[in-house]
Amino acid sequence: MSVRWLTIIPIIGIFIGVIFANHATPIVLGMPFLFFYMVVWIVLTSVCMAIVYKFDPTNKE
Amino acid sequence: MHKSPMVIIFATILISLILGMLARRKKKMDLEQWSVGGRGFGVMFVFLLLAGEIYTTFTFLGGSGWAYGTGGPTVYILAYGAVAYLFSYFLLPPIWRYAKEHNLISQPDFFIKMFDSKWLGILVAVVGVVAIIPYLQSQMTGLGLIVETASYGAISQPVSIGIAMIVLAVYVTISGIHGTAWTAVLKDILIVIVVLFIGIALPIHVGGFHDMFTKINQEKPGFLTLGNGGMGIPWFISTVAMTGLGFYMWPHAFGAVYTAKHERIFRRNAIFLPLYQLVLLFVFFAGFAAILIVPNLQNSNLALLAAVQKVFPAWVAGIIGGAGVLTAIVPGSLMLMSAGTLIAENIYRPLSKSATDAKVQIVARVFVWIVAAVTFLFSLQSNAAIVSLLLMGYDFVSQFFPTVLLAIFARGAVSKVGAFAGILVGVGLVVYFTLSGQSILWGVNIGFWSMLGNMIVVLVVSAVTRDASSKVKESVTA
Questions:
Q1: Domain annotation covers residue B212
Q2: Residue spans per domain, chain A
């Protein structure tokens, strides 16, 4: 199984998770919850991409 | 009289023009240098050219304006960037490889080579130019607002948009993409500093982040979540999908992909670009703070500048205006250049029998000026919200996505006729919805509906009109 499948996680978080995260409160780190939730997923997208980049054999040349 | 903002703004324009001229020194400006930088750009330049997309006037005024006027749905802007970069990891390397292998210069070249059809290239070029105009218009509306506001009304919006278009056209004619890349460096440094500053200072001015959002939430219940103005969860999902997938379908973004030196650049950039766009958050914070600082503005595009002027001295507004000017010049010049190249290379050349390289280059530069003039006329006519102009352009360019996707990953499933039919149907649906004044249907973005219809048509028509088997090229995903 290719490490590239890891990218499915942020997709689920952003497209499906948002259904459950659509709230203004609690305000976390000074942000309405919806915005905080999206920030978390952006950071996780980056982390996932870093892992994929590291272990994807296409990048080892 | 406030002189300092004007001095700062015009100094910024001058500096970017000088950078543009320095960048072209000692380079022979043939079309390949002019438009794809001789395919020699490294990680840094490609990063900035592609990131130039995030920090445009749209972000600056449109993003804060949306936070101010629309609230919760603004969050889509954060999400679509992440989705676009995630897909870029898979999408861009094969496009780049194909472009390098076949020496492609523009986006329509990709379709022409892939489907062996000059008419498909012409169709893509026309749709591309049509999509660029509202985008360019959004940049110019923003630029006009910045100059008008920063001059405290001394220079009216039509005059400042006119000046802006001329600066942009001169800039592009002289330096091509090298100038854009260098100005992008200056722009991104300045914009990050400015955005962090106002995105923190304005919320603190109204009592800090927590209090600010608590107050907004009490005054306008529901404003900070999805659902405002019919923009609920289905709208969010469809808009993020449509804009995230359409992101690299812009002619200028597609073309910027060709400038890279090697394909790993895109995969590496996919790690950092999502983080880079978190700076946008501070643009939104500034827009939310403006709700409490300057409530009830007629024009939400003005929210950020109006709040800054109320809170800070005039020279701060000048620096912010200067940064704003750069955010319009960088993407604006990329778009203008793409429009010129598209018309010359992909509409004029195939249709004219007497087209020499020298002539095509002249046509490209002439059309830079014509497109600038047309955009200027449109800007005078309409004062639409910057984000809606951008979304309209996205509706159009995202109609390329189904064909590009299939061409790269399942070449056998798409035929020339199928590609033609899909793009025509997609664009036709967008035009129909736009003319009938709809942007959302059953809660879903109309660009998404059009893309869906497009995809179905491509698959069905391709299934019945397979390309002659000898002509089908192998898939480029090796």
A1: yes
A2: 20-56
